[in-house]
Design goal:
Rossmann fold; D-amino Acid Aminotransferase, Chain A, domain 1; 435 residues; 14 helices; Dna Ligase, domain 1; eight-stranded antiparallel β-sheet; 26% strand; 4 domains
């Protein structure tokens, strides 16, 4: 297909609900590329936003079971010169399309390691990296073997998925057997059991979470770490309550997680894209949780508001092999330079007993708190909630920016005192969660 020499290149994005919104994609692509969205029109998140998606770019249907060769021919007709995704579940489809078209992306083998926690652990272990004890768990007959391999305390979670979906800590053998049995009976037949890492709250600071993520850009043999994202403490059982950029990590711990990220990316043979790598901060040092082969959720907003650098724009440029320079370590001020401002998002995850939002109070007042720039009420009174959906279950998100971490602490305290959400709840924690 011949196109005018002045036309923008076309970038295919294999799309579903993921780390960035359609509006963010459209904004980041302005002046850089035209967007082609490869999607399943019947997927709930896609169907709900079709008018917006149609306004952003050309839509190419790719329902489950569609051959990569068929969709690839349509993309070739459109003249796409790059491809990427921001959804974990679509890494494999994107890799197959990239291979069909001869475009840069994770190979199908690398995509499998990034999307499937079992394959990722096995590959890291084979490369000689320290990994937590882990075991596959796909049927009731394998529960005892998995328990013996992993030992206690442990974590049970799906091999594929993001946002802490259906992730359970277990402390006793009885609890391990019960939770594993209930997950398998509920249809979660692709599980991984892992050694549970115990965090050290003193590494990042007592007010902050005991885990962080590293945001990186990979271009061939070159790995550039953009910065380290800090976290607020997890809420039961393993759900995020907030994120901020940059983190509070001291230099020694920061260097350890950056070095560990480089080793993991090389071991997994990642050669392109933006990645999001999580570490637990333990008394023995940072331990790798997992590597995600796409831009992290919330990261584009955080980094942009903190530093002015658009991570999503960088991801699009990387997919197009545009060759734009990538900034390094923007989370730390250069000698004599002002440190970046702290951008944050405070989440409101529902309690595990909640079934629906009852009341939302204080949103208007929270918007007037110094440092708060936006309060997004995600679930209105009467709307259902389910903690098992992880980050997709938030009732509200508060966005803000402060001059430093001390100011961040004060702002978060004011938000927590002001924004009040109550829920209709079942009388006990749901099956599968220890009381």
């Amino acid at each position: 297909m011949n196109r005018p020499a002045t036309a923008l290149p076309r970038l295919a994005i294999v799309y579903d609900n993921g780390a960035v919104s359609p509006v963010e994609i459209a904004h980041a692509a302005t002046g850089l590329c035209d967007i082609v969205l490869v999607l399943d029109p019947s997927a709930p998140a896609v169907a709900a936003s079709l008018p917006v998606l149609e306004a952003i770019g050309t839509l190419v249907p790719h329902p489950p079971g569609t051959a990569a060769e068929k969709t690839g021919r349509r993309l070739a007709e459109l003249g796409v010169s790059g491809i990427t995704t921001f959804t974990d579940a679509l890494l494999g489809d994107t890799a197959e399309l990239a291979r069909t078209l001869g475009l840069r992306f994770h190979t199908p083998e690398v995509a499998q390691r990034l999307a499937d926690k079992l394959h990722q652990r096995a590959r890291l272990a084979a490369a000689g990296m320290p990994v937590v004890r882990f075991a596959e768990l796909s049927c009731a007959a394998g529960i005892e073997e998995a328990l013996a391999t992993v030992r206690l305390p442990a974590v049970l979670k799906p091999r594929e998925g993001a946002g802490s979906r259906s992730t359970f800590p277990v402390a006793t053998a009885e609890e391990f057997r019960r939770v594993a049995g209930e997950l398998l009976a509920a249809g979660e037949d692709r599980l991984i059991a892992e050694e549970r890492l115990v965090g050290d709250p003193d590494v990042a600071g007592a007010r902050w979470g005991d885990y962080v993520s590293v945001e990186s850009v990979v271009d061939g043999d070159r790995i550039t770490h953009i910065g380290i994202t800090g976290k607020l403490p997890l809420v039961e059982p393993f759900r995020e309550s907030g994120v901020f950029f940059p983190s509070t990590l001291p230099e020694t711990a920061a260097n350890a997680v950056l070095d560990g990220t480089t080793q993991a990316l090389r071991a997994l043979e990642v050669t392109s894209g933006v990645t999001h790598t999580e570490f637990k901060l333990t008394p023995e040092g940072p331990r790798l949780i997992e590597v995600n082969g796409r831009l992290g959720g919330f990261v584009n907003d955080l980094v942009s508001r903190s530093t002015g650098v658009g991570m999503l724009r960088i991801a699009l440029e990387n997919a197009l092999a545009a060759g734009a320079p990538v900034p390094a370590r923007i989370d730390a001020a250069a000698a004599g330079a002002e440190p970046p401002r702290i951008a944050f998002q405070r989440f409101a995850p529902p309690p595990v007993t909640a079934v629906a939002v009852d009341r939302v109070e204080g949103a208007k007042e929270a918007r007037r708190i110094p440092g708060v720039v936006r309060v997004e009420v995600v679930r209105r009174p009467g709307e259902p909630v389910d903690w098992r959906r992880g980050t997709q279950s938030f009732a509200a998100i508060v966005y803000g920016r402060t001059a430093g971490h001390r100011e961040l602490d004060a702002t978060l305290a004011a938000v927590d005192d002001t924004l009040r959400i109550t829920y209709a709840a079942r009388p006990h924690a749901p099956a599968g969660l220890s009381s």
